[in-house]
Amino acid sequence: MRYFKSINQAAKELGFSHVLGIKVIRGDFKYAKGWTLEYIDRKSQEGMNANVDVRKKSDLLRERRAQLKAQRKAHVKEMDLPPKLARCIIALNPATNDIVGMYPNVYKAQQATGLNKIMDAVLGLREMVGGYKWAWIFG
Question: Shortest CA distance to 33 belongs to which of 53, 51, 12?
Answer without folding.
Answer: 12
